[in-house]
UniProtKB/TrEMBL annotation:
Cited InterPro entries: Class_I_gatase-like, ThuA-like
Domain ThuA-like: 4-93
Family annotation (SUPFAM superfamilies): Class I glutamine amidotransferase-like
Source species: marine metagenome
Lineage: unclassified sequences, metagenomes, ecological metagenomes
Name of the protein in its database record: ThuA-like domain-containing protein
A Pfam family recorded for this sequence: ThuA
């Protein structure tokens, strides 16, 4: 499977993301790691079978409207979305994320 692993933010993602990437690759997956949310709108997301959030996207790292719509469309199309650790927290600016 092709996995897109979104990382970054105010947490020790620089420590956990490489471990997670290695684990997933050892299971036979192809993993693309990105810290920039443009991955949701630049075509990278559409090449992925599953999106994994190992990131907290709020404040100055919040997703903009186009990125939110891309994520909603991706999930609505039946693709996988996995939130790890604090990624499951609902951003103040996007209540729909929790749904």
């Amino acid at each position: 499977m092709n996995l897109l692993l979104m990382s970054g933010g105010r947490h020790p993602y620089e420590e956990s993301t490489p471990v997670l990437k290695g684990f997933l690759e050892s299971a036979g997956h192809t993993v693309t790691v990105r810290e920039d949310a443009e991955a949701l709108t630049d075509g990278t997301l559409n090449k992925s079978d599953v999106l994994i959030f190992n990131t907290l996207r709020e404040g100055d790292m919040a997703l903009d409207a186009a990125q939110q719509n891309a994520l909603k469309g991706y999930i609505s199309s039946g693709n996988g979305f996995v939130c790890i650790h604090i990624s499951g927290c609902v951003p103040d600016s996007w209540n729909e994320y929790g749904e």
